[in-house]
């Protein structure tokens, strides 16, 4: 990982950042497309797994489980839903997943092309019936990245997947479409968060310290690398927080370090209780979180919302100069790993209603209420 580093997503940032069950269930009930790619849910009675936005008949809560990826759902014995086609979200083929037909078709064309010789933007734009400029704007609005960055993301994802599958570094390099090994090693922090050889060994050598603390909102987990804070989670107990940390960083060496992380915890709690304003460039809370340029624009905008106030996804999109990117803003909020430091609890739906929150809607409501109370003093 690198501080403020850029690691571009494919169609969505497919990640093991699994929201809490309450948030997941709330998203499923609302068929919230913002959470497509954040988690998948399975239904025991039908044996299938779906996207949160699936239009099928709503299941009963007792029959539903949540998964961080299609692979996790399939490993648990579930098959892909034929209605919402949950694997197509990863591949960028589905038009019923919140993507317009031109963007979904463009993603599919890029995906199907030879990795060594991807088609030009102009060629793909022509095939989907748009100009290059119009297609680029559609990508930014719906995915939060331009086509070039999407292609970079897919190349990196192919490289990572090949390494995970046991391919040699050389085979993974050329199979993903890299013409030179030096290109990957020069940018290994962006592509993998570590060198290719280390990544191929399952993340051996990557080290993250973490600790826990009490707060008025439950337990707080703070995790950090040598460069800065890698995660801030909120929860009810240490066991579930540690499980979430392992899901988010499966390839890292995780070590509890209560004494060493004391100052970092103090800085996070200062923001929790309103003693210090939130800022991404604050010296006492340096961040080592991977995100796209678009995500960092959204996260910075969140820190500029006054405590106790909220902004809709659309308002945030307009504030960063991307008025049509409300859905991409929602996805950027959903992938925030640093609760409180990046105050995604201040983002709300278009109606002003509190939408899903990884650490629970009730906790989000309480955070905002307490911020308003402090601001009114």
CATH architecture descriptor name of the largest domain: Orthogonal Bundle
- Kindly state the percentage of residues in helix: 40-55%
State the CATH topology of the largest domain. Answer: Arc Repressor Mutant, subunit A
Class per helix and strand makeup: alpha/beta
Q: What overall form do the CA principal axes indicate?
A: globular
Write down the secondary-structure element order: HEEEHEHHHHHHHHHEEEHEHHEHHEH
CATH H level, superfamily name of the largest domain: Winged helix-like DNA-binding domain superfamily/Winged helix DNA-binding domain
Question: Which segments are poorly predicted (pLDDT under 50) over 5 or more consecutive residues?
Answer: 1-17, 91-97, 178-205
**Separation of termini?**
40 Å
Topology summary:
Blueprint: H1 21-30, E1 40-43, E2 48-50, E3 64-67, H2 70-75, E4 79-80, H3 86-91, H4 101-112, H5 121-128, H6 132-143, H7 147-164, H8 169-176, H9 181-186, H10 188-191, H11 196-200, E5 207-215, E6 218-224, E7 229-235, H12 238-248, E8 253-256, H13 262-272, H14 293-303, E9 311-312, H15 313-319, H16 326-334, E10 347-348, H17 361-375
Parallel strand pairs: 2-4, 5-8, 9-10
Antiparallel strand pairs: 1-2, 1-3, 5-6, 6-7
């Amino acid at each position: 990982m690198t501080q403020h580093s850029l690691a571009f997503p494919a169609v969505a940032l497919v990640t093991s950042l699994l929201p809490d069950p309450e948030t997941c269930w709330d998203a499923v009930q609302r068929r919230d497309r913002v959470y497509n790619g954040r988690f998948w849910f399975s239904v025991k009675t039908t044996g299938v797994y779906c996207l949160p936005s699936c239009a099928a008949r709503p299941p009963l809560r007792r029959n539903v489980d949540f998964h961080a990826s299609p692979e996790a759902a399939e490993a648990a014995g579930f098959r892909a839903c034929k209605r919402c086609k949950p694997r197509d979200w990863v591949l960028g083929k589905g038009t019923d997943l919140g993507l317009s037909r031109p963007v979904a078709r463009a993603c599919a064309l890029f995906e199907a092309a030879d990795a060594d010789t991807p088609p030009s933007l102009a060629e793909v734009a022509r095939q989907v019936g748009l100009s290059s400029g119009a297609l680029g704007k559609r990508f930014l609005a719906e995915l939060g990245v331009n086509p070039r960055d999407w292609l970079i993301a897919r190349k990196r994802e192919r490289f990572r997947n090949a390494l995970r599958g046991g391919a040699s570094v050389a085979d993974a390099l050329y199979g993903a479409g890299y013409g030179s090994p030096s290109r990957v090693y020069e940018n290994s922090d962006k592509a993998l968060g570590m060198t290719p050889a280390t990544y191929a060994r399952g993340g051996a050598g990557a080290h993250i310290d973490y600790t826990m603390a009490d707060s008025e909102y439950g337990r707080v987990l703070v995790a950090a690398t040598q460069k800065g804070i890698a995660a801030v989670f909120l929860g009810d107990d240490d066991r579930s927080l540690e499980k979430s940390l392992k899901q988010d960083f499966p390839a890292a060496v995780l070590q509890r370090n209560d004494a060493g992380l004391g100052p970092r915890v103090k800085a996070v709690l200062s923001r929790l209780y309103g003693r210090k304003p939130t800022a991404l460039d604050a010296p006492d809370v340096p961040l080592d979180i991977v995100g796209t340029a678009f995500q960092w624009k959204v996260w910075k905008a969140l820190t500029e919302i006054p405590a106790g106030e909220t902004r809709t996804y659309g308002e945030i999109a307009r504030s960063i100069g991307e008025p049509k990117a409300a859905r991409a803003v929602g996805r950027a909020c959903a992938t925030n790993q640093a609760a409180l430091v990046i105050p995604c609890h201040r983002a709300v739906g278009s109606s002003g209603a509190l939408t899903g929150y990884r650490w629970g809607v009730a906790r989000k409501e309480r955070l905002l209420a307490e911020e308003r109370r402090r601001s009114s003093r």
